[in-house]
Design brief:
The complex is a heterodimer of chains A (about 210) and B (about 475). Chain A is of the alpha/beta class and about 210 residues long. Helix content of chain A is about 30%, strand content about 25%. Chain A has a single domain, classed as P-loop containing nucleotide triphosphate hydrolases (Rossmann fold). Chain A contains 6 helices and 9 strands. In chain A, helix 6 links the parallel strand 5 and strand 6. Among the domains of chain B are: about 100 residues, 2-Layer Sandwich (Dna Ligase, domain 1), CATH 3.30.1490.100; about 80 residues, no CATH class. The longest helix of chain B has 22 residues. In chain B, helix 7 crosses helix 12, helix 13 packs antiparallel against helix 14 and helix 14 packs parallel to helix 15. By secondary structure, chain B is an alpha+beta fold. Classes of the chains: A alpha/beta (about 210), B alpha+beta (about 475). Chains A and B meet through helix 3, strand 3, helix 4, strand 4 and helix 5 of A and helix 15, strand 14, strand 15 and strand 16 of B. Strand 4 of chain A pairs antiparallel with strand 14 of chain B.
Chain lengths: ~210, ~475
């Protein structure tokens, strides 16, 4: 049996090269589409963003995908956001505000419940959350809820949570340097950690842009 | 035609026991002139030796902690009618026979349920979940099935073939014609219906009147027996008497579940949904705690309705013990069941947004779940509003804005005249001057800048033009 025949067989997995099934949500940035295994943000799973703070630009990275998802039938839910998501800026980014749901519970435990409900229900294509507490068991439940509802869960957490293990399908560390937003992939399905990749684009920022 | 009879032989007792799970000895008594007698006892009371016919005082002597409830015939009638409404999901022809029999004409439903056995097992399971123990029987005529169910139940005839033979074996007491007629029949040596059927017809008429012969003819299908169909009322009103006063919410949930099950059976029967429910917890005839649930989209799914009620009940404080639960709805609205897509490839059931929003609001409160929209105002803090989810929004003015806005602008410290947030901030070139809002007293005159700190985080800050000319943080570029 020759080497080519052997490699054709599906029973062999080659490390370093992942399957080219492109069923992810297109990110809107070529550099990220090339970096992620499914050619985009993972559907039916959690994506974790580890950032030093909100001003870094992680939300801008997901705006193109959120805009496209909101134009379709399903909704975008924001659970306990740290500041007010500014409607004019969201609308400028292309998000259809009639498919946006803002959930602001008073108790933190209600927040995790709300995230699980919105992920599981299937009504929302994407759910954004800023979990304050969250151990591995809770994240696993959220991952299962995202699979059940085929929704994209986005968790924004402080950078120091990187050392904690997490069942999220995709984990990114997002920082900002002078040339733009820098993305380090800490974990991705079907591949090793990768990066850093610098993403440039409108709204993300080269200095001096108006 | 095939008739099914549901005989609720223990109805006087069950209207009390279905409300709670506990099995303490309970009797129902009834009687005149201050000499109440036990007419029904539950299993644990029977174990103590109490049976029907015993004077109540003697029953109390047998078991000190006995709970005794007076018979409530109005409640029995209501329960029978609710049961008839619930049975509507099996057939459209339901008829009541006071005080404890419900008749269903199921000939036309057999095909839908896949045969008699599946229908019977679904019915039995449903009755169990509602809290009733019933004797069932089927026969080609309504009167025959009623006689069979009253005797012992569990006889299922599906045609006229064995009808005569089965009825012949019933004792003459099945005729229910009164004790003196009973005595005369047994005096003549007639103990079973078969004996009566063998007698000549004109002789029977002469001795006992035409009525007995007419009933026998109806039972055997030789004479027509039209029954009045039960008309389901436009609203649902379920009542549940609790055997003992309850003062915590968890114990009430058992009874609420029974009522919701009844409601959903009726909704399925009428292909309807309910828009508003009111759960009333009765402390005394004058004091009632009421819990309202309203829905945007008519709901009919049992689990969904129960969830909504549970969520609202959690925040209720009981002022006094409850001894009755009522579930009332408004007029039922036609509401189709969601269709199953024949070629569905998505295994995901996408829930309607209204259902998700209602569920979130039931637990978190209405203000916690909202949408947002753009508002036409130059002042950044007023350029947006909270809105009803799903409401359309106007397009914004095409200027650069941050994705995050602070609820209140935060004052920044200055160092050598430059604003700082932990470290000194560097301002990008270019500013936006906004002067607006003189008409409602909340006018602003500000210069907005994009600022960056040493880690590269970008903020939206402004310098107010009137004195004291402070710097504020208003937004974050996410």
């Amino acid at each position: 049996m020759s080497l080519e025949n052997l490699l054709q067989r599906a029973a062999i997995w080659r490390g370093g090269k992942f399957s080219s099934a492109k069923e992810g949500i297109p990110t809107g940035f070529n550099e990220l589409d090339a970096l992620f295994p499914s050619g985009g943000w993972p559907r039916g799973a959690l994506t974790e963003f580890l950032t030093p703070g909100e001003g870094v630009g992680a939300l801008s990275l997901v705006m193109p995908a959120l805009a496209r998802l909101s134009q379709e039938k399903r909704w975008i839910a924001w659970v306990a956001p740290p500041y007010i998501p500014y409607a004019p800026a969201l609308a400028m980014a292309g998000v259809d505000l009639s498919h946006v749901l803002m959930i602001r519970p008073r108790a933190a435990s209600d927040g995790l419940w709300a995230v699980e409900q919105t992920l599981r229900s299937g009504t929302c294509a994407a759910v954004l959350a800023w979990p304050v507490a969250g151990d591995d068991r809770m994240l696993r439940r959220l991952q299962l809820a995202a699979e059940a509802g085929q929704s994209w869960g986005l968790l924004f957490r402080p950078g120091r949570m990187a050392i904690q293990s997490s069942p999220a399908a995709l984990r990114l560390r997002v920082t900002r340097e002078s040339q733009g937003v820098v993305v380090n992939v800490l974990k991705r399905r079907g591949g090793w950690a990768a990066g850093p990749v610098c993403v440039e684009g409108e709204g993300l920022g080269v200095r001096g842009e108006e | 035609m095939l008739w099914l009879c549901i005989h609720l032989s223990r109805l006087p007792l069950e209207i009390f026991t279905r409300g709670s799970e506990d099995d303490n000895p309970l009797v129902v008594h009834c009687g005149s002139a201050g000499r109440p007698r036990v007419i029904a006892a539950n299993a644990s009371a029977a174990v103590a030796g109490i049976k029907s016919g015993l004077p109540l005082a003697a029953a109390r002597a047998l078991h000190a902690g006995l709970r005794a409830c007076p018979r409530d015939q109005a409640a029995e009638r209501r329960a029978l009618e609710s049961m008839a409404g619930w049975c509507g999901q099996f057939t459209s022809m339901v008829s009541l026979v006071s005080p404890d029999v419900v008749l269903l004409e199921i000939g036309g439903s057999l095909k839908l349920f896949g045969g008699l056995d599946p229908l019977l097992s679904e019915l039995k399971a449903g009755l169990g979940q509602l809290g009733y123990q019933a004797q069932l029987a089927t026969a080609p005529t309504p009167l025959a099935t009623e006689w069979l169910a009253r005797q012992q139940g569990e006889i299922f005839l599906d045609g006229f073939g064995k009808l005569v033979r089965t009825l012949s074996q019933l004792p003459v007491s099945a005729l229910a014609s009164g004790t003196d007629v009973q005595a005369r029949l047994s005096g003549m040596g007639l103990h079973q219906l078969g004996d009566v059927l063998r007698l000549p017809r004109d002789g029977l008429t002469r001795r006992f009147g035409a009525d007995m012969l007419l009933r026998l003819d109806r039972a055997l299908g030789r004479a027509p027996d039209p029954r009045l169909p039960f008309v389901v009322p436009p609203r649902f009103a379920g009542h549940l008497l609790l055997p003992a006063e309850v003062d915590n919410i968890e114990a009430l949930l058992f009874g609420v579940q029974r009522l919701v099950k009844e409601l959903s059976g009726m909704l399925r029967a009428r292909v309807a949904g309910v828009r508003a429910m009111s759960l009333q917890l009765v402390h005394s005839p004058t004091s009632v705690t009421s819990v309202q649930v309203g829905m945007v989209v008519p709901g009919r799914h049992e689990r969904h309705l129960l969830e909504l009620l549970k969520a609202r009940l959690e925040s209720v404080q009981l002022a006094a013990p409850v001894h009755e639960i009522r579930l009332l709805t408004d007029t039922l609205a036609f509401c189709e069941a969601p269709h199953q897509d024949l070629f569905a490839d998505a295994a995901v059931e996408i829930e309607a947004p209204e259902v998700l929003i209602e569920r979130l609001r039931a637990r978190l409160g209405d203000e916690a779940v909202q949408g947002i929209r753009v508002y036409a105002d130059h002042r950044p803090e007023f350029a947006w509003r909270w809105s009803v989810p799903g409401q359309d929004s106007i397009q914004p003015i095409p200027v650069r804005r941050p994705l995050w806005l602070l609820a209140e602008p935060r004052v920044l410290k200055t160092h050598r005249g430059r604003p700082c947030l932990q470290q000194e901030l560097q301002l990008w070139p270019g500013r936006e001057r906004i002067e607006s809002g003189w008409w409602d007293g909340r006018d602003i005159r500000r210069d907005y800048f994009v600022a960056q700190d040493q880690e590269g985080m970008r903020y939206w800050i402004f310098h107010e033009l009137p004195e004291p000319r402070r710097w504020f943080l208003h937004g974050v570029f996410g």
